[in-house]
Design a protein that fits this description.
By secondary structure, the chain is of the alpha/beta class. It is 47% helix and 17% strand. The chain contains 15 helices and 14 strands. The strands form four sheets. It has a five-stranded parallel β-sheet, sandwiched between helices. The protein has a four-stranded parallel β-sheet with strand order 7-6-8-9, with helices on both faces. A three-stranded antiparallel β-sheet has the order 10-13-14, with helices on one face. It starts with a helix and ends with a helix.
């Protein structure tokens, strides 16, 4: 039998052991490890890492998440699915991360989604392809750890079709005094553009003010578009409706200007989302008759303006869109951990769908949240904002849409007007 004194001693010992165990648990959670899996040798991969770094610093400077600081660990995907798989498994098995943000290409995204199911790890990433949506809808329980912080291919395409194309067609009809505008559809040969290519073509055909004059696909790293540009000139193309995101997009824009093809380029060129890089690669003169729809990197909310200034202070110039993507992704994960009061993957997963980041905490969003397919919620009123912008002759960004953030009217280069008159 235990005496009262011995019982008290044992109680003290057990209490001390419990205190040590609880304290160890707290220390273990003193650092939240988040993996950033991206193509570290490419501009968009560098952007992904920078966005996560900006969000982590902001969170840590404010005291962290429930007192715990965020530590980032990066791994190179090399922009391929096999390497993305290797990067994720390295981060999970070796670095013991609590979650992962990152990716860029749709090829990477498909690997990210599969790994989230295999590892039961919350992975928040960039995946435009709607293949991800189809998989989630078919097996929501399997893919419940998958979270997508960018719009889908069909969402981009529908916005371009319904808002961007009519803006250009209407302006050119008035300027040229014609009934129809000759439109070319040109997209990358990539997984993310397959759906967009079809929506573009159908949209042009359905628009009574348009005539589909040319359709083409370009190699992602192509360096010569002489044949394509010559054919578009012969067919009288006046608007080139694009979906481009790789190095060939720089060359296409520059060569179109070099041969003075009198056609406005619009649609979606993700290369133009990093203004500094785009102007350097294509040249200010070539850029001056380009526009693109955008998310993440345009100054469409007061908080985004502050973030763009902060990015310029740290890195110089304007950011690639993936800065805003990983910034929002990491902020959403941190909020979910705070709501769950735990790093348990299932508890955090249950909270991620409830996260609401206000305009004052998100990049280019009036409110950041995920929809019922685990993809970012898109809305011009209260969700992720699409915008349309154009470069002027000095390389400055002119906002054309949405209306409340508009800073100027669509500009048509004088040399192009002169060519049309001839």
């Amino acid at each position: 039998m235990l005496t009262l004194g011995m019982g008290l001693i044992f109680a003290i010992i057990f209490f001390a052991m419990g205190f040590i165990e609880m304290n160890a648990w707290a220390l273990e959670r003193n650092v939240i490890k988040v993996g950033v899996a991206c193509a570290l040798k490419r501009p968009f991969g560098v952007a992904s890492l920078r966005g996560a770094e900006m969000a982590a610093k902001e969170i840590n400077d404010a005291g962290g998440v429930l007192g715990a600081k965020i530590q980032l660990v990066s791994a190179d995907t090399e922009a391929t699915a096999p390497k993305a798989t290797e990067a994720i498994e390295k981060l999970f098995y070796t670095d013991k991360v609590d979650a992962i943000v990152g990716a860029y290409s749709s090829e990477e995204a498909t690997a990210f989604q599969e790994q989230s199911a295999k590892l039961k790890l919350n992975i928040i990433f960039h995946g435009i392809t709607s293949i991800c949506d189809k998989k989630y809808k078919a097996e929501p329980e399997k893919y419940k750890y998958y979270w997508n912080y960018v719009p889908a291919d069909f969402q981009y395409a529908e916005y371009a079709r319904d808002y961007v194309l009519p803006l250009f067609v209407s302006a050119l009809k008035k300027k040229l005094r014609v009934d129809k505008i000759n439109v070319a559809v040109v997209t990358d040969m990539a997984l993310w553009t397959e759906v967009m290519h079809g929506i573009y073509i159908d949209g042009v055909k359905a628009n009574p003010d348009c005539r589909l004059a040319y359709v083409g696909k370009i190699a992602r790293e192509a360096v010569d578009f002489t044949a394509e540009l010559t054919e578009m000139r012969n067919k009288g193309v006046q608007v080139i409706f694009v979906a481009m995101g790789y190095a060939g997009g720089y060359t296409f824009v520059k060569q179109a200007y070099d041969v003075r093809l009198p056609a406005m380029i619009t649609g979606m060129n993700t290369l133009a989302w990093s203004v500094k890089d785009f102007l350097k690669a294509a040249g200010t003169e070539a850029a001056a008759y380009n526009s693109s729809l955008s998310v993440f990197s345009m100054p469409t909310t007061p908080h985004t303006v502050k973030l763009l200034k902060e990015y310029d202070r740290i890195h110089g110039g304007s950011p690639h869109m993936d800065v805003g993507a990983t910034y929002n992704g990491l902020k959403a994960y941190a909020k979910a951990v705070e709501m769950a009061k735990s790093l348990n993957h299932d508890k955090v997963q249950q909270q991620l769908g409830k996260v609401r980041l206000p305009e004052s905490a998100a990049w280019n969003c009036k409110e950041f949240r995920f929809d019922d397919t685990h993809r970012i919620y898109i809305s011009q009123k209260d969700g992720m904002l699409f915008s349309t912008y154009q470069f002027d002759t000095e390389g400055k960004v002119v906002m054309l849409q949405p209306e409340e953030y508009k800073t100027g009217e669509l500009m048509i280069p004088p040399w192009m007007e002169k060519a049309w008159k001839k």
